[in-house]
Fold this sequence. Notes:
The protein is of the alpha/beta class. The protein contains eleven helices and seven strands. It folds into two domains: 178 residues, HAD superfamily/HAD-like (Rossmann fold, 3-Layer(aba) Sandwich), CATH 3.40.50; 69 residues, DNA polymerase, domain 1 (Orthogonal Bundle), CATH 1.10.150. The chain has a seven-stranded mixed beta sheet with strand order 1-7-6-5-2-3-4, with helices on both faces. It is globular. About 9% of the residues have low confidence.
Amino acid sequence: MAKLSTNMSHSFAGPVFQAFFGTANLTGNPMHIQTSFLFDLDGTLVDSVYQHVLAWMEALDAEGVELSVWRIHRKIGMSGGLFVDQFLRETGLTPTPELLNRLRERHAAAYNRNVHMVKPLPGSRELLAALSEAGIPWAIATSGRIETAKPNLDALGVDTAKNVVITRDMVQYAKPDPDLFLTAAERLGVPIDSCIVVGDSIWDMLAALRCRALGVGLLSGGYGQDELERSGAMRVYEDPKDLLKHLDEVGGRR
């Protein structure tokens, strides 16, 4: 069921709508803005958030860092490096390049051991297929590195040789910085302010806000509607299947 955000009076709503409607990506019709879609991956298109949570817990445990699962979940979706830095600061440990590399490698190994459990979210394949069939540009921009993103992309049937996919390896900073989405829009050849960023976390919505794209939230990653709205989501849907049913509400048409 679609959920209409109620935060239109927030101070950021004006600039976001001005950005979205003020600069058009003009096609043959000078009065039409061609919408493009930029998708997060984990929790947005594939049901992988909790596998990542448990993989990070295993990696942190191996280094003697004890954290509750819920605390780890709250950081999923942001840059892995920033994620680890914050946790190490909270526990009083000093982050070093060697420690950060070990944690990243341990996380990737733990995640890939259980990647067979990760499935595409309901409607994700159909959503991407519908956009492609309609000739609507789309890309995937994930804070994950290619070693953990590749199995998820394969499950979706996304070919990185044919589709635009931006991973953490390809940008200087990941979410909540907007680099991933800016790079994805550039690769598509579309202006960022005619893009809709679809994500499941507050970090997606904050990054969308910073690059003046319109944020659409999904509940499929575990964040609540109110949290997504407060972070900038103008519409919130349950999952990709729900978004597909209401695609015309967010400009998903030629």
